[in-house]
Design goal:
By secondary structure, the chain is an alpha/beta fold. The protein is built from 21 helices and nine strands. The protein is 44% helix and 13% strand. Strand 7 and strand 8 form a beta hairpin. Helix 2 packs across helix 3 and helix 11 packs across helix 12.
């Protein structure tokens, strides 16, 4: 790796895949998520959840969070997802400086509570950060819920932050996990980078490593990296490192698509799970790239809903190894017009995304989080899905909405509230909705179960996601 450092004038490798707080990129909502986590830990008493795909930056975010917390906060980082109920208690106790006793299983909870009370009395707060939480046994996750019950006469003794892959969200949706899910007061998600964000990320990493010249990665190279990496930062790091090495070997100071193609050919990335029917088309595009059919290269990023227009479908010839040996076989093997499936249109147009992003949430982490949650729902929920519109605020003051959210989390799960900025010329109003339901009937029943305070204060309107999108 050190081979290309002098060639590019770098002080250190810019694209290491190990978490490095000095290389924390605060773009693409990362900085806002970090601020939101700090706020939630220091001002809340519930469990906090951070989910995202493998390699999307969760561990780096965790490391930076540990550095940014005040000195009076004791942090415990647990990276072993195979802990049993007793082992996780012992691990926390040992991290806080007290070794296990001769008979640890007899009174481990009582001893840990005593330890936490002592720390609390001395002005210390304890935050336990659990990585790979999606892989924890349900029994251990239940112990995590019970840990959140440890408290003094007035305050919780322990703050818990769960970091995990999207499987964590699925695990918490199980009926057996509903009590734990109800304890989660803040949910954050590390999303993949789009092409523009990937370019900013790459430039930032190069500068953080000491680079001072003109941009090394061409726009075409950045687009190729964003597509091939699915926007996941760890994969971007791998491809950028290999591309720099290829440029060094070619004695050039610019990384072009040629070097990126060499990096892609030298990398074996697993398919990104959870993409539904899109996943097979992504794999097909990758196979065509591997065999030299580059005409479909622009599809991948669009499928990830980046801020670019969808590519025009074009005919793609089969790879040489698959070509038929006779005209009759070729005719039989050729796909029909019905078999060539067009990729689905994005649910939000680029102009709608720009309008959503144009609203300034300021230093209001809960508001930023709920706007991000609304965008995620608007980009994924079908037109036939419904939400409950609580109210529309013509006064779009961010601080005022933040105060509403602070009160709302005492009554309903904050993760179910969606704040949608709607542009009207040069100004905005805010649409506040609750929940996502598969039908109007389901939304009607859910509205009846909302707190009495909301029943009296708001005049509910049921809005389909088609309506909510069309109004942006």
């Amino acid at each position: 790796m050190a081979l290309y450092l002098e060639h590019f004038g770098l002080d250190e490798p810019p694209f290491r895949i190990t978490p490095h707080p000095d290389f924390f990129f605060d773009g693409a909502d990362r900085g806002a998520t970090l601020e939101g986590l700090l706020y939630a830990i220091l001002h809340d008493e519930g469990i906090v959840k951070v989910s995202g795909e493998i390699g999307s930056g969760k561990t780096t975010l965790c490391r930076v969070l540990m550095e940014r917390l005040p000195q009076e906060v004791e942090t415990v980082f647990l990276a072993n997802p195979s802990y049993s109920r007793t082992e996780i208690l012992l691990a926390i106790s040992e991290e806080l400086g007290r070794p296990a006793g001769a008979n640890p299983s007899a009174s481990v909870v009582r001893e840990l509570q005593t330890q936490l009370i002592e720390l609390y009395a001395s002005g210390r707060r304890v935050v336990v950060m659990i990585d790979e939480a999606h892989a924890m046994p349900e029994d251990t996750l239940e112990q995590v819920r019970l840990l959140s019950n440890l408290e003094s006469s007035r305050h919780k003794l322990l703050q818990i932050v769960l970091f995990g892959q999207p499987e964590l969200d699925a695990a918490l949706d199980k009926s057996s996990m509903r009590q734990l899910k109800d304890r989660i007061t803040h949910s954050f998600r590390t999303r993949p980078l789009n092409v523009e964000e990937a370019g900013s990320y790459i430039a930032f990493r190069m500068r953080a490593a000491g680079y001072k010249g003109r941009e090394v990665f061409t726009p075409a190279a950045i687009s190729a990296i964003a597509r091939a990496s699915s926007g996941l930062t760890r994969r971007i790091n791998v491809l950028c490192d290999k591309s720099l090495l290829a440029a060094f070997a070619a004695n050039t100071h610019a990384v072009t698509p040629r070097q990126v193609r060499a990096a892609i050919a030298d990398s074996e990335f697993a398919p990104v799970p959870g993409r539904g029917s899109r996943n097979s088309r992504v794999l097909a595009a990758g196979a065509l790239l591997a065999t030299g059919a580059l005409a479909g290269a622009g599809i991948f990023y669009w499928l990830e809903r980046g801020n670019v227009a969808p590519p025009v479908p074009i005919a793609i010839a089969p790879p040489p190894a698959a070509q038929a040996s006779s005209p009759a076989e070729a005719a039989a093997a050729a796909p029909t017009a019905q078999e060539v499936e067009k990729p689905p249109a994005p649910l939000l147009a680029p102009e709608q995304l720009r309008r959503l992003e144009g609203y300034a949430a300021g230093r209001n982490p809960m508001l930023r989080e709920r706007i991000a949650g609304a965008r995620e729902k608007l980009e994924s929920e079908p037109d036939t899905g419904y939400s409950i519109e609580l109210f529309v605020a013509e006064n779009s003051d961010a601080a005022r909405t933040e105060r509403f959210l602070a009160r709302a989390r005492e009554l309903v799960p904050l993760s179910e509230i969606y704040v949608i900025p709607v542009a009207t010329g040069s100004s905005y109003f805010l649409r506040v909705a609750y929940g996502a339901y598969p039908s109007k009937e389901a939304a009607t029943e859910a509205a009846k179960r909302l707190p009495p305070k909301y029943q009296n204060a708001f005049r509910f309107e049921l809005r389909s996601f088609a309506e909510l999108r069309a109004a942006i």
